[in-house]
Input
Amino acid sequence: MHLLYNLLLYLFLIPILCYLRHGAFQRLGFSLKRSQNIFKGKKIIWVHAASVGEVMGISRMVMELKANLPEYSILISTITATGTDIARKLSAMGVIYLPLDLPFVVKRALRIINPKILVITETELWPNLLLQAKKQGIKVIIVNGRISEKSISRYQRLKGLFKKPLEQVDLFCMQTELDAKRIGSIGAPSEKIMVTGSAKFDLGVTIPSLETIKRFQKEIEITDMSPIIVAGSIREKEECVILDAYQQIRQQVPDAVLIIAPRHLQRIEYIKKALKKRNLSYSLRTRREKRGKEESKEKTVIILDTIGELLLAYAVSSVAVVGGTFVPVGGHNIIEPVALGKMVLFGPHVNNYQEAASMLIATDAAIQVSSASELSDKITYLLKNPDEMSQKGLSGKKFVEENQGASMRNVNAIKGLLPSSF
Output
């Protein structure tokens, strides 16, 4: 089966490169050859994270690796252009596209980079990369490992391809007991498997001080008694979903206030137009502009036209809605509001936080919806049942706190595989 896998890679090489589009020379290892002096003499930890979600998941781990192992240089590889852009902010040494999983390509890449350890995140199981790393005496560890229900059947069908490569891995740090069981079912040796939790809960939330929260609340002129809905990191077209839901909510909860925080401030003019179309009055966080019902002192919607205040908005909210989830962009940080003790709602597109989303839903700390009407129904229920909403929010906060620490556990596992001296 391994021979067939390699044959298919060679046959479809050109279509694969066309599909990936970016970094063709680097994916084939040519640019690495020109840059080999950068790697010479360095003690390198090579961390691979496929795309945006995986890169975000290892951000705290990379920071801890730098702090705990300052003598090492961190090289990050990704598959997508967006993942590469985010990874550049994390790595002091550099970011590359993952070399294609062809024997001669990964063999050359590993020889040039010569890492002391190869750290692979989630389920990036590339047979030739794993086999060649072991042949060159490089330690290999899987961190933040997961195997979804959707992918396990595919892996089991291809068990013959993955069994030998998995045997070459030195340690599997899986997110859950179920993930541990699944990786074992496709060939990972049981003595090499451990559960370390999900690093997505380690993204970090700096809890604002009570004084800062109160000052913010006073400045936006909202009382403690007001039901406040915060829609954070809203992307293009999502404002329509949010505002349609909000109009329905106000029919049942007329004093509900909406704070809408666009992901990009240039969207503010579009949000204004959407508000005007629905005859909703609004004010800006900064200029206190108002349109629509000019004679009314009522602030039905506040547009957060500042940077760096979303956490404060979540902190004063009754319930939070996270954007990037009603359009297919992968979703934004759903953990932030939960860490502040708030119930969170999001749409169907949470690819970047799929594991965290599933866990939060299972603990009743989050609700996933698919439409404006469903969103309005769920929020209306929560606002009419504040004690239940508050209890679930506090349970969610406790759950996040209990699940933090996976990044440091992964760092300790990596340190355990590194030789003490060279």
